[in-house]
Amino acid sequence: MNLDIVHIQTSDEVNLAGAMFSASKNNSAFLFFHGDGGNFYSPLYLNMGKFFSSHGITFLSANRRGHDIMSNTGNTNISGGYAFESINDFPLDCDAWINYLLKNGYESIVLGGHSGGAVRVTYAQSKVAHPNVKALIPISPGEYNHKELCRLHGDLFHEAFTFAEQAILDGNPHELLSPGIPWGSTWTARAFVDCFNQDDRYRVSKHALVSEIPTMFVFGACETTPGDSEELPVCGLARHEIQNHIKNGSDHLSLQIIAGANHRYGGKEDNLYMEVLNFINET
Predict the structure, then answer these.
(1) What is the pLDDT of residues 93-108, one digit of tens each?
(2) Taking the model in full, what pTM does it have?
(3) Are residues 94 and 182 in the same domain?
(4) One domain for residues 186 and 58
(5) Are residues 243 and 262 in the same domain?
(6) Cα-based distances in Å from 250 to 183, 190, 245
(7) Closest among 106, 86, 104, 69 to 12, alpha carbons compared
(8) Taking a C-beta distance cutoff of 8 angstroms, is the pair 19, 49 a contact?
(9) Taking a C-beta distance cutoff of 8 angstroms, is the pair 116, 138 a contact?
């Protein structure tokens, strides 16, 4: 296994870093993006890199501009970190990393992500169907459906969204909020309204239908089981919608559920890695 810390700059001059686990020389690679508030060096992703490189697959764990909660982009005009990130900007990050792989001889790319990274790779591929991306692996994405979030979280979500909208109207788009729902994180008012907008602009089940490349969604059983102590309702929504798409004949989609797994796949990492490896080998 060869591990290198690599650096790129996006077309809008955002600096990003990643960990490249190079396997035996071939022209294929697995490009993977972290979850919300995370980063490329989280143990789940580094261990994933070790696993795939040991099985002959080059793996790149890549930062997006939304890494950590707040971060330095290297561009004084662009605020970094999840609190400020818009999913709409993610294709710039994804394109930059794909171009990095292409320049280094990797012409066949599997694109994947975990949690918010899964939402973003699905969105990016639906907006620009990159010809070098041969398969898509979204792991534990949430379904950003405004109406359903209101149903699931009631007044808590409505109050948070209304607060964020009012902050924007008052000229304070960067005011921070940590409402605890739909999950525990921190957003600026502008990022919160953008992410969970009434127009459902980042609804993962919608964007999953656009790309026709082989796409395997993966969820943990615990995070998608109502009433489980590890339940994450937005992931349960996404699982339900993807299952419906498959039942209705979306042949490019498939679904795997990891028994006993929560959103972080604690203690079930190897089960996750094997399901992904089998899919890549069969694609």
Answers:
(1) 999 999 999 999 999 9
(2) 0.97
(3) no
(4) no
(5) yes
(6) 29, 34, 6
(7) 86
(8) yes
(9) no
